[in-house]
Amino acid sequence: METLNRTLETIGKGVGGVVGKIYQAGRDTIDVVIRTVLPFIAFVGLIVGIVNGTGIGELLAQTLAPLASSLGGLLLMSVIIALPVLSPVLGPGAVIAQVIGTLLGTQFGEGNIQPQYALPALFAINPQVGCDFIPVGLSLGEAEPETVEVGVPAILFSRMITGPAAVVIAYFASFGLYA
Amino acid sequence: MLQAIETGAEYFIGIFQEGAAWFEGVVVGIVPLLIILLTGVNALIAFIGQERINRFAELAGREGWQYSFIRYLALPVVAVVALTNPMAYTLGTFVPERNKPAFYDSAVSFVHPPLGILPHVNPGELFVWLGIATGIASAGFALTPLAVRYFLVGLVVIFMRGLVTQFIVDRMMARRDAANAATA
């Protein structure tokens, strides 16, 4: 009887723990969706509406689509975004990358840009990732102030090389995609 | 006159209808799957526990180039997938001081490439992936091939980025130490 009771208790606690964790995961998820995901979808939705509804879209199509339709154009885009003066400014919340991505997306959707350029484009819009966050990110890893002093310029310079390099790698990796 | 006002009103509301149609497509087509997937992965991470992740991170702290693969490839991936943005960077604690910038560079560069498969890593910045992805989907192409390649190319890019940044940091630190030695 004693053992049976103990077994039941263990099982009960175990199941309770599992259910509790999954329920908490659900709560965290809904929190994130309502606080950050849906507001951003609303924000982007308004931009899409303005861009498509007013005809700015046509104008953007004429400038962005050719830029994103060749390796050279995508490289140019990544070099500009990775400039050490620009990259920390363009970083916060990845808003710029998300807006450019969505604008390019509408062009992919209308067939103005060939789908095989999607992969290099994903890297071309994003060479600045995290450049606004370097000192904070390094402090989260408990780096000394002297390391931060060297780390910030080192990462910004590195992006000038690795940003365009990522586009080239993605370009070659997209052979056979949507062909 | 009335005609002009009507045309104007139609143009005005048309802008918002255009946005609403897009909003509906994303909320109906993407958000439900996202919610269930996020719940699953969040629960899984809660089961694995922070302690086990820390123990793995200590491996990356060993000196020596042969641990580069752990420092700039395995650890950033585990950090981002298990701890997500921005908690992932706390694992830099386990990395030697001179490797911290390169580890950060490598980890932060991986907060978007998994988004097509594991959106929980950075749900707040989903549209870095989804912006282009929705366009590709509406052109009638399957997204999975693109999502998988984005993930795989991401692996190559973060490793390369870690190595390049480490190279630059080493140069800069050596120059700084030489300058300090000269003044001392």
List SSEs of chain A in N-to-C order: HHHHHHHH
Strand content of chain A: under 5%
Low-confidence stretches of chain B: none
Helix content of chain A: over 70%
Summed up, the helix count of chain B is 7
Rg of chain B (CA only): 23 Å
> Roughly what is the average pLDDT of chain B, rounded to an integer?
86
Radius of gyration of chain A: 23 Å
Which structural class do you get from the secondary structure elements of chain B?
mainly alpha
Largest interchain contact:
A-B, 83 and 78 residues
Mean pLDDT reading of chain A: 85
**What composes the largest sheet of chain B?**
none
Query: Helical residue percent of chain B?
Result: over 70%
Q: What is the CA-CA span between the terminal residues of chain B? A: 84 Å
Beta-strand content bin of chain B:
under 5%
Flag low-confidence runs of chain A.
Answer: none
At a glance:
The complex is a heterodimer of chains A (about 180) and B (about 180). Chain A is mostly helical and about 180 residues long. Chain A contains eight helices and no strands.
Word description of this protein:
- The complex is a heterodimer of chains A (179) and B (184).
- Helices cover 78% and strands 0% of the residues of chain A.
- Chain A has 179 residues and is mainly α.
- Chain B contains 7 helices and no strands.
- In chain B, helix 3 packs antiparallel against helix 4, helix 4 crosses helix 7 (144-183) and helix 5 packs antiparallel against helix 7.
- The N and C termini of chain B lie far apart (84 Å).
- Chains A and B meet through helix 1, helix 5, helix 6, helix 7 and helix 8 of A and helix 1, helix 2, helix 5, helix 6 and helix 7 of B.
